[in-house]
Amino acid sequence: MKKRQVVMVRRDASASDNNNNNNNNNVVKYGECLKNHAANSGGYAVDGCREFMASAAEGTTGALTCAACGCHRNFHRRKELAAPSRNEDNIM
């Protein structure tokens, strides 16, 4: 029987809060599907899905599956768009 060593990393709560605040400033969109459907045969072929569309409501497991191609959201190109600041919305 082999012995296994487990390493646990504790993250500082204030550091994780800072990371979450930085990520909330951007809007994330998922673009075209990049899944290689011919990887088993050594080729390269994508299905042509142009944009991720969730197949179910947010907060469910179906929200991570594309309604158009059936792939997981991770196969789609991630695009981070800068969210408009609140000051720009209030300019007359």
Automatic annotation (TrEMBL):
<dbReference type="GO" id="GO:0050793">
    <property type="term" value="P:regulation of developmental process"/>
</dbReference>
<dbReference type="GO" id="GO:0005737">
    <property type="term" value="C:cytoplasm"/>
</dbReference>
<dbReference type="InterPro" id="IPR006456">
    <property type="entry name" value="ZF_HD_homeobox_Cys/His_dimer"/>
</dbReference>
<protein>
    <submittedName>
        <fullName>Mini zinc finger protein 3 isoform X2</fullName>
    </submittedName>
</protein>
<dbReference type="GO" id="GO:0000976">
    <property type="term" value="F:transcription cis-regulatory region binding"/>
</dbReference>
<dbReference type="GO" id="GO:0005634">
    <property type="term" value="C:nucleus"/>
</dbReference>
<keyword id="KW-0863">Zinc-finger</keyword>
<feature type="domain" description="ZF-HD dimerization-type">
    <location>
        <begin position="30"/>
        <end position="79"/>
    </location>
</feature>
<keyword id="KW-0479">Metal-binding</keyword>
<feature type="region of interest" description="Disordered">
    <location>
        <begin position="1"/>
        <end position="24"/>
    </location>
</feature>
<dbReference type="Pfam" id="PF04770">
    <property type="entry name" value="ZF-HD_dimer"/>
</dbReference>
<keyword id="KW-0862">Zinc</keyword>
<keyword id="KW-0963">Cytoplasm</keyword>
<dbReference type="GO" id="GO:0003700">
    <property type="term" value="F:DNA-binding transcription factor activity"/>
</dbReference>
<dbReference type="GO" id="GO:0008270">
    <property type="term" value="F:zinc ion binding"/>
</dbReference>
